[in-house]
């Protein structure tokens, strides 16, 4: 729709209100079925005052003459020490026919919600139908959304939270408790992994946290955090014991949890069972039995951002 008065500024509360997981997960499913033009993500490393490497990411996507948009993301891993989120982002949505700027949308909320929704979307194909115990590894912005996303697709009754900073895990568990979840802090990561149906990791780890030997039969491992080849949340044994899925082929070159096992021959390209495209389109079967261990690695895709932004814009127009 033409829009000539300048872009609407959509703040966090209005963005959040439009992206309820019961709406967002089906919207992502539809987007992966329909497809979009998604150029390679532009990733730039930035010099920073800290030892941690900062990053600038540019993520464009468009669907014919319908809509186009781009997300601008900065990642500063040491921001937790400053009491700030590691990730900051803004989404610019444009008219697909005229290129006019329609809306500037809170990108952090889009990123967190579409990331959690993508995990739940994959999990709807890969996690056991009766999976009820969820372990969240991490306590940041995205980790805080995972329980609600998973509860939209599975009967989650018990949530454990583990983080290398116990105080942050306790804070997230308290917040989840206020939201109605039976949430507790996991003191020991191995014990918590062994006891969980779903393990969902949203960290910036550069050395593996999850070991394949900890995964019990029927478990589903969801790896959200790593988006660079030097970042890892699980070891090579995890991909050896699991049936492996990725969100898009970008994970083959961007995700340390895939790149390193491919390099060590713990994983072969042919052994990767499918992507969100093939799962959503019915081209790849999901979980095949209740004893199978499944693994989903996501690096994020601009098609998800575009689908989320379209939902927000639809609400802004009252359609």
Automatic annotation (TrEMBL):
A GO term for molecular function: oxidoreductase activity
Highest taxon of the lineage: Bacteria
GO annotations of cellular component type: cytoplasm
A Gene Ontology biological process term: carboxylic acid metabolic process
SUPFAM superfamilies: NAD(P)-binding Rossmann-fold domains
Entry-linked InterPro entries: NAD(P)-bd_dom_sf, ODC_Mu_crystall, ODC_N
Alphabetized Pfam families for the sequence: OCD_Mu_crystall
Stated family: Belongs to the ornithine cyclodeaminase/mu-crystallin family.
Protein name (database record): Ornithine cyclodeaminase family protein
Originating organism: Rhodovastum atsumiense
Top-level taxonomy: Bacteria, Pseudomonadati, Pseudomonadota, Alphaproteobacteria, Acetobacterales
């Amino acid at each position: 729709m033409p829009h000539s008065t300048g872009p609407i500024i959509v703040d966090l509360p209005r963005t959040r209100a439009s992206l309820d997981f019961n709406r967002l997960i089906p919207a992502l499913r539809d987007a992966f079925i329909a497809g979009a033009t998604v150029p390679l993500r532009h990733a730039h490393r930035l010099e920073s005052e800290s030892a941690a490497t900062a990053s600038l990411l540019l993520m464009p996507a468009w669907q014919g003459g319908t809509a186009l948009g781009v997300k601008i993301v900065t990642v500063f891993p040491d921001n937790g020490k400053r009491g700030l989120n590691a990730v900051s982002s803004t989404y610019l949505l444009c008219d697909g026919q005229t290129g006019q700027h329609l809306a500037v949308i809170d990108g952090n909320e889009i990123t967190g919600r579409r990331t959690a929704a993508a995990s739940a979307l994959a999990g709807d194909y890969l996690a056991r139908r009766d999976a009820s115990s969820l372990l969240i590894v991490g306590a940041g912005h995205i980790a805080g959304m995972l329980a609600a996303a998973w509860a939209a697709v599975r009967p989650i009754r018990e949530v454990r939270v583990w983080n290398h900073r116990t105080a942050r895990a306790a804070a997230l568990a308290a917040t989840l408790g206020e939201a109605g979840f039976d949430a507790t802090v996991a003191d020991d990561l191995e014990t918590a992994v062994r006891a969980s149906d779903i393990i969902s990791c949203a960290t910036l780890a550069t050395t593996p946290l999850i070991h394949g030997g900890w995964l019990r039969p029927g478990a589903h491992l969801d790896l959200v955090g790593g988006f660079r080849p030097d970042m890892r949340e699980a070891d090579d044994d995890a991909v050896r014991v699991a049936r492996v899925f990725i969100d898009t082929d970008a994970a083959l070159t961007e995700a340390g949890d895939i790149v390193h096992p491919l390099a060590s021959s713990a994983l072969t390209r042919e052994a990767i069972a499918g992507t969100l495209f093939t799962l959503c389109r019915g081209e790849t079967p999901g979980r095949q039995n209740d004893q199978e261990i499944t693994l989903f690695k996501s690096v994020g895709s601009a098609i998800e951002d575009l689908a989320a932004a379209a939902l927000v814009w639809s609400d802004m127009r009252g359609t």
